[in-house]
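User: Round two. Same drill as before: sequence, then structure, for each protein.

Assistant: Same drill it is. First protein:
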Amino acid sequence: MRQSISKDLEEDSLCMEIPSISHPLAEEELIIPTLPFGQKIKINILNTWGDMNYTGLAGIEFFDLQGKSIPIDIAKVTAHPPDVNILPGYGSDPRTVDKLVDGHYCTEDDLHVWLTPFTQNEEHTIDIDFGEKKYLSMIRIWNYNKSRIHSFRGAKDIECRLDDKLIFRGEIKKAPGNTKDPE
């Protein structure tokens, strides 16, 4: 199947235009590629669903051309800021960035989510290296889902870059704050 994909896909010839969001970091024009191709992805959380101090996610999944999950090496997942352990009074909080790819996505469990300090108009990034260039057919982001109140810590507007090329800018759905209604 890979051989039947023309070079045009790598050059983003099949694209759609998406209106931009209003944010100081969202100044670049965006044309979403149909099948982005690259090795390193950077996700920047621009704002939350309302929490002014923290942001977090429960997981991120990536899928290839055949719709199969792309395995991620935990050692190749980093974040800035890394997690709440950089704050005074923390140090052994389990909500670290490696939890984003641990396979437990529909969860309210602190042992399987990532949480980091949030400062408006600053970058809150997650960097993932696939190890080699890959086609991406889908990215599934599981938002922070600890409880109904804490779900406001989840990411609202994000930007995704693949090999430094903007491939998505927009809003992601707020988590319901429970696992009985994951929608």
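Second protein:
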Amino acid sequence: MANGTKQQGQDPIKEIIKKLHFSYKFYTRSYPDITHLDETSARAHFANTGIHEKRFCSIYHFFLEKKPEYAGSISIKKFRKHNKVPKHISPLKTCELILSHLSYGCSSKWDATLFRSPTKRSTIGKHGRIHPWAAQFNSPDLKVLEIGSRCVSSQAHWKRFFPDVQYTGIDIIEGENVDLVADAHKLSEYFEKDTFDLVISFAVFEHLAMPWIVAEEVSKILKVGGHVAIETHFSYSEHELPWHFFQFNSTALECMFNEALGFEVIDSGLDSPIVGRFADSAAPHLRGKLVGDLYCHSSIIAQKNKPYTSQQFSWREALPTVVKNTMYPRNTGFSRNWTSPTNT
């Protein structure tokens, strides 16, 4: 009778293990603490410990919990081969990659098909490369101003590229790496004309209420021959609301740091490609459609080559220098195949 009771107590566990398609290789290769177990011990471990700890014992088990409509139809072997997943990646981690692929898409060589338009791409100002570019200016005599210097998502890691400069960091809020609490729209009220050799700003211009005014202020306090390096966002989520006002492509940045303000563009463009599509909650005719030519970052590096004169500068009068030799494309409708008009 005792043996019968014991047998009845084990049967439900055995049924669960069978139902979940227990896989010895999947289970032991997914959890480092049980790689040494033989198959019988692994089954016992799952029954006594794994179920309680909510461990997964098979591909089927993982997707039954995470995305039941795919349970029983997923092949790790095919996914590994197609996406060139290294063999050292565990079965569980591979399942997580597959889930990410099913839920959000997975980066692949096919992404390139979404970036066929002649978008201007940054080179020197490419994301992560502005800092090495600025390293050439490292000198005890160089005066650098950073707009929006407070450590928020990073720790001012760019400083290691030019540690010897005379650095001033400003931000609208006090905090780590902030030397002066100041409004970037009023730079000339804090600093003398022609003070700095280099002005930098990363992930800040989207948070400026009137960034064109800041561009003008930069021209005031930047020396002739000095440089400005700006990186901001083109296609990115709203953040730090309500203080998120603009998104920019590189043409917009060139409009602000324009010839009339004394700037010459050295490099500008978009970087960090994003693959996007319309969500299920979008209008019916848009649902599921892919969106091409999305880029996270937009940047500009420009040099000031003539003095700023307030009496001579006007944004309205600067307009012809901003849009010179261009015209809104005639073949409208999300057309990106702009060509310069020919004189007839």
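The radius of gyration is 29 Å.

User: Perfect.
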